[in-house]
Amino acid sequence: MKILFDFLPIALFFGMFKYAESSRDWAASTATEWLGFMVAGGVVGPTEAPVLLATVVVIVATLAQILWLKARGKKIDAMLWVSLGLVTVLGSATIYFHSESFIKWKPTVLYWVMGGSLLLGQLVFKKNGIKSLMSAQMTLPDAVWRTVNFSWVGFFAVMGFLNLWVAFNFPTSTWVNFKLFGGLGLMLVFVLVQAIYLNKHIKTDTTP
Fold this sequence. Notes:
By secondary structure, the chain is an all-alpha fold. The chain folds into two domains: 1-99, no CATH class; 109-202. The chain contains eight helices and no strands. The protein has helices at residues 2-22, 24-35, 49-71, 78-97, 101-123, 129-134, 142-169, 172-199. The longest helix is centred in the C-terminal third of the chain and has 28 residues, at 142-169. The two termini are 35 Å apart. It is found in: Cell inner membrane. Belongs to the YciB family.
């Protein structure tokens, strides 16, 4: 369920973008009415309107996630705060300059922040971030935990580069599709492959 919760803002971004893309005149007039005071020139055209409206939705959705967790007394992951900061800063730049280039960088920066945190923790602070998250559910040799941690570092690094490649070599609609289906699909495949690897190394309790 957590992965669905994490991907909710992306799904809402996708939904708004697709709807606005199919109704560009409505999107342009709505974006101009709602966001005109925030954009350079005060007018949003039909080409950039879909991504601007979708950007507003993802900012609101990410903020709503944090408020919902706070209302329930749940711990808010540091990465969710980072995500809110990134989407607010880059999203605001996208809205003001009415250019999707800024928001397209957000997934990459977030991937690299997560990967960099795991790498820094392992190499500098000698703390395995993945082990800290998963050790309560399974027992593994330290060497395996290191492999798992570095595999996540590599995954986040590759996903960051892949996002940029799709974002700046294909139409925005293709990037939006990849952002939801490609990101979620590759994450699920990676987790499945890793689960198979972990299953071979999990220590079992042999106590009578």
